[in-house]
Design goal:
By secondary structure, the chain is of the alpha/beta class. It has seven helices and eight strands; from the N terminus they run ββαβααβββαβααβα. Helix 4 crosses helix 5 and helix 4 packs across helix 6.
């Protein structure tokens, strides 16, 4: 996979400015005392960051959306009082975990796995249904965010559509899938299931960081 192009801001270096390559950035910063520099996904974002100065950007793990201001306004911001769910899988198939994280507090509300020989889609679906069941039990009516269109569609259809082949290794995953399908058939819920807009907001708080 080709590396995404970056633009490099040099706030403190031989010649402060915006540079189009890492090599150019290095020329201005290597060996320079207390040099401050950082890469950005677009020239427009780099230009704004250069004008902002290093205090707002340098050494901080910030997400920079490449969407236009108009697109960001249309999407809006996520609802803070909400639950977020996600899954992580090492390989396809491979060991899978899923979890739910409170968006506002950052607290891990539940985490399950690893489940061998499973998939990310299976985990995303199980995470959503797990959150729905848990929140119904607690009379928690907050919305739930998922970044998986596939998992959201499975929940709406009240049935998983995995192509994963059943085996002795993934027996538990299939038992959980069947239980999730039954729960959706036998229960109603009031929680809104919302799509997490990764391009606008960055990774979902429940992300496992395995991409």
């Amino acid at each position: 996979m080709a590396k995404k192009k970056k633009f490099y801001v040099v706030w403190i270096g031989s010649k402060p400015g915006i540079y189009k390559t890492w090599a150019e950035c290095q020329v201005q910063t290597k060996g320079y005392p207390k040099a401050k520099y950082k890469g950005f996904p677009t020239y427009q974002i780099a230009e704004k960051a250069f004008l902002d100065g290093p205090l707002e950007h340098w050494g901080k793990d910030k997400f920079y959306s490449t969407l236009s201001e108009e697109q960001l306004k249309l999407i809006g911001k996520p609802i803070q009082d909400s639950m977020t769910v996600d899954a992580g899988c090492q390989g396809v198939p491979g060991p899978m975990d899923y979890q739910g994280v409170d968006y506002f507090t950052g607290q891990v509300v539940f985490r399950k796995g690893p489940f061998p020989n499973s998939t990310n889609n299976v985990g995303e679906y199980l995470a959503l249904v797990h959150a729905l069941a848990l929140m119904k039990k607690k009379n928690d009516k907050r919305p739930i965010y998922s970044d998986s269109k596939i998992a959201i569609s499975w929940v709406k259809n009240k049935q998983h559509r995995t192509n994963l082949k059943r085996s002795k290794l993934n027996k538990e995953s299939f038992e959980l899938l069947e239980r999730a399908d039954r729960w959706l058939e036998q229960n109603t819920y009031v929680n809104k299931i919302l799509k997490w807009e990764t391009k606008a907001w960055g990774e979902i708080p429940a992300d496992f960081g395995r991409k």
